[in-house]
Amino acid sequence: MAEAYIVESIRTPGGRRKGALSGWHPADMAGEVLNALVDRTGIDPASIDDVIMGCVTKAGEQGFNIGRNAVLASRLPDTVPAVTVDRQCGSSQQALHFAAQAVMAGVQDVVIAAGVESMTRVPMFADMTVLAKAGIGEGPVSARIRERYGVSEFNQFNGAEMVAQKYGLSRDMLDAYALDSHRRAAGATESGAFERETLPLQVDGGTHSRDEGIRFDATAESIGGVDLLIEGGVLSAANASQICDGASGALIVSERALKAHGLTPLARVVDMTVTAGDPVIMLEEPITATNRALEKSGLKLDEIDLFEVNEAFASIPLAWLKQTGADPERTNVNGGAIALGHPLGASGTRLLSTLIHALKARGGKYGLQTMCEGGGTANVTIVEAL
């Protein structure tokens, strides 16, 4: 089978809600990622066959096919097509899968997989509430679905609490994990570990070059003092991912394109898996997806050097670690979304960027990333650093 190679993977530093990146239109922010992928690789932008852009909240400034608008906001020629995909939080990871599949099938040779989300300018759920507020329709969960699953809505916060309860995770365990995420991210920032993967953006007052959500002074007391999200639960805003503005992307090419454009690959795609399960508990599916991906790839858990498990809520990576038996010291080694932020549609290729560059820096070979997603799905990608 033909191979799919990753020749560059980058991300913007995360911006807090109403923070450093709030002045950036999401199409412009994503356009800067497209520009940087071309600049860093030196590839002829006219040779790009397609841009596949992940985005979750496709309303307002993120409506009207933001993938195409990102191309129009970039320096890419307008002959480059683009499409926007939605697999909830896994949208740009799915964009990576679609890009790699096109290359491996021999249909295309040069594809950008990317993602963007401005959670400041286009608030979460904005696409689902506009018509409801106008009294039009019944929302995305139909009466038939509600009857089938016995719920009035699918709620990720309830799902995360259900995961914590199912796997015996306490508030103290979640808070300790959150503190570790901040400490790891702070250490990675101070050591310069993120410099290769990040794309600084110009903002009022200077350059935004560091993830804005990291709490360098976080303590067990400060995290433990944050109110719970649900009375009687274990989740708080401090042990859940941060609302975040950001964009990310990767350039995926065939072996033919490597030779034709004189490119040097960072990694190759080893396996792409997506699975689906219970949409009510919703967020535990990375466990099943990981086991499936390892089985498909023929790799053993201890052959994977680094793992990136999205920290949508601390209960998710903790449950994943408990069930898979993976090494916590090889998981989210530079922190995760609790510290760095979770810019929804951009998080898939954000994790990819962090994973690949961490593998390269540490001399690792195989990396695995996985993402819990609304509706009870999960993506897993395994890459080999080259």
General description of the model:
With 386 residues, this protein is of the alpha+beta class. Helices cover 36% and strands 19% of the residues. It has 13 helices and twelve strands. The chain has helices spanning 26-41, 66-73, 91-104, 126-133, 143-149, 156-166, 171-191, 220-224, 255-261, 285-297, 315-324, 337-340, 347-362, and strands spanning 5-11, 15-16, 50-54, 82-85, 110-118, 201-203, 206-208, 244-253, 267-276, 306-309, 366-373, 377-385. The strands form two sheets. Strands 1, 2, 3, 4, 5, 8, 9, 10, 11 and 12 form a ten-stranded mixed sheet that branches. A two-stranded antiparallel sheet has the order 6-7. A hairpin with a 3-residue loop joins strand 11 and strand 12. Helix 1 packs across helix 2 (66-73) and helix 10 packs across helix 11. The longest helix has 21 residues, at 171-191. It is globular. The two termini are 18 Å apart. The mean pLDDT is 97.
Short description:
This protein has 386 residues and is α+β, with helices and mostly antiparallel strands.
Describe the structure using short key phrases:
386 residues, alpha+beta, two-stranded antiparallel sheet, 13 helices, 19% strand, globular, transferase, Thiolase_N, Thiolase_CS, Acetyl-CoA C-acetyltransferase
Number of DSSP-assigned strands: 12
Q: How would you describe the shape?
A: globular
Q: Can you give the mean pLDDT? A: 97
Distance between the termini: 18 Å
DSSP strand content: 15-25%
Radius of gyration, in Å, reads 20 Å
Structural class: alpha+beta
Low-confidence stretches: none
Level of helix content?
A: 25-40%
Can you summarize the main beta sheet? 10 strands, mixed
- The tally of helices reads 13
Order of helices and strands: EEHEHEHEHHHHEEHEHEHEHHHEE
Keywords: Acyltransferase, Transferase
Domain Thiolase N-terminal: 5-255
Pfam families: Thiolase_C (PF02803), Thiolase_N (PF00108)
Protein name: Acetyl-CoA C-acetyltransferase
